[in-house]
Amino acid sequence: MTPLAQILALPVRAYRLFLSPWLGNGCRFQPTCSAYALEALERHGAAKGGYLAVHRICRCHPWGGHGYDPVPGADPEFDQSTRR
C-alpha cells in the first residue's frame, strides 16, 4: 500500500475499531463498505482506491444497491460477468 493510501486508510481503520462495534452489522453489501475501502486502497492506491471507496459509500443508502460487490479486479469472473 502506498504511503498516501495508508494515510487514507487510517479513518477506515479507526471506524472499524471504535464505531463499527457500536453500530452493528448493517452494511447492505458484501464485502462490507469498510473492508471494500481497505481493499480498494491496497489494490488500486490512493487516487483510484479512494475514489472507489467514496463511490461505494455513496451507494450505501436505503435506495441504493445491495448484494455482492467486490473491488474491481478482485474477482475476475464477477468482473467479466458484469460486463456483458
From TrEMBL:
What topology does it adopt in the membrane? Peripheral membrane protein
Q: Which InterPro entries match?
A: Membr_insert_effic_factor_YidD
- Tell me where it mainly resides: membrane
Would I find Cell membrane among this entry's keywords?
Answer: yes
GO cellular component terms given for this protein: plasma membrane
The listed locations are: Cell membrane
Q: Which Pfam families match?
A: YidD
What keywords tag this UniProt record?
A: Cell membrane, Membrane
Q: Which domain of life is it from?
A: Bacteria
Question: Which residue positions does the secretion signal occupy?
Answer: none
Query: What biological function has been recorded for the protein in this entry?
Result: Could be involved in insertion of integral membrane proteins into the membrane.
Family that this chain belongs to: Belongs to the UPF0161 family.
> This protein is called what?
Putative membrane protein insertion efficiency factor
Please report the organism this UniProt entry assigns to the protein: Rhodobacter ferrooxidans
